[in-house]
Amino acid sequence: MKPLKIAIMSLTHGHTRKYYQTLKDNPKLDWVAVCAENETVREVFEAGKHGIPCYMSEQEMFDRHPELEAVVLASANSEHLRQVQECAGRGIHILSMKIPTFDMDEYDRMIRIVDKAGIICQIELEMHYNPVVHRLKKLIAEGAIGKILSVQATNITLSPVWAFPWQGVPEESYGRRVALKPGDRRCRGGALCDHPHIFDLIRHLTGSDIDFVFSEVAPNIRPELEVEDMLLVNGKMKDGTVFLLDPSWSRMEERLKVPGPGWEVFPKRMEVNLTISGEKGVLVSDCFGPNVYHNGAPNDRYTVQYTYFDEWIGLIDEFVDCVRNNKQPLINLRWHRQTIQAMNACYDSINDNTPVKVN
């Protein structure tokens, strides 16, 4: 199969990321260009000596690389509609980061634009390719625990705001400035926006959609943030499964100008854990299970070896297969739409202090 010529569009960081290695090493891809959001990002990216040309203008990148077939949208959420329109007009396929948009009218416009252009738009939710999740799905399908009754899941991390500043700006993360609730100075656009994975996973594992949610937000452990960093969500699926989700930034970080060793402080920075209870038994899983070596003083640092970016191999395999064979990916815009609706319902629940039905 001919490698897919791909670029990163509107890079908003620049520091070394494991998926850079995936883009370089996967034989199904030919990584040809990057477009950086600003000069600082460009300088950091080029310091990594990736050997990939980095541009400051989307137009220049497209003009210099007419061979481009696909892009990774690495931009702030607020830029996605414009960039989807740009790519659709050029017939370029899209691998979009997690949140296409929280504006449901914009979301529906994206669906129409992508359908009319006949391009692939896959959402980057790599947990679908996690081997632990595959094992859970197989056991559930085999009836190992019988009918699912409840799911408890965590998707907890440190705050990425210091590495990805746009995630702390409500207008860029949520798309506009909306107060969390009356009398609260904080706005929508924080930890919840960063963690759609477990909302998507409970739909994936149960085969059902979310019926209603009730969500509460805690005081921030980072008081200076304009967005939320701690919250809980409970609710019920349409098939009767009840759930409790923790999508918080509950792990602290050391704030470095360019994240690297020392970014993580104890305890481990990222966890996705699931407890699935059924009529016949319970499945308990740690989806990442990283090896952690605590280094101690002076800054409570640790060394960690994660394997989770291996999931990008399966994600890329599906993306390339869909582009080459004109197939729809599992996590397409239509599939993901209900997850975004449910997350908006969580924000409405926080505002109203009441359970909210997901349309």
Measured by DSSP, the beta-strand proportion falls in: 15-25%
Order of helices and strands: EHEHEHEHEHEHEHHHEEEEEEEHHE
Low-confidence stretches: none
Number of strands: 15
CATH architecture of the largest domain: 2-Layer Sandwich
The helical percent reads 25-40%
Report the CATH topology name of the largest domain: Dihydrodipicolinate Reductase, domain 2
Main beta sheet: 7 strands, mixed
Q: What is the overall shape?
A: globular
Number of domains: 2
Structural class: alpha/beta
Amino- and carboxy-terminal Cα gap? 41 Å
The neighbouring-strand order within the major sheet is: 12-11-7-10-9-8-15
- CATH superfamily of the largest domain, by name, is Dihydrodipicolinate Reductase, domain 2
Average pLDDT for all residues: 91
Question: Number of DSSP helices?
Answer: 11
What does the radius of gyration come to?
Answer: 20 Å
CATH class placement of the largest domain:
Alpha Beta
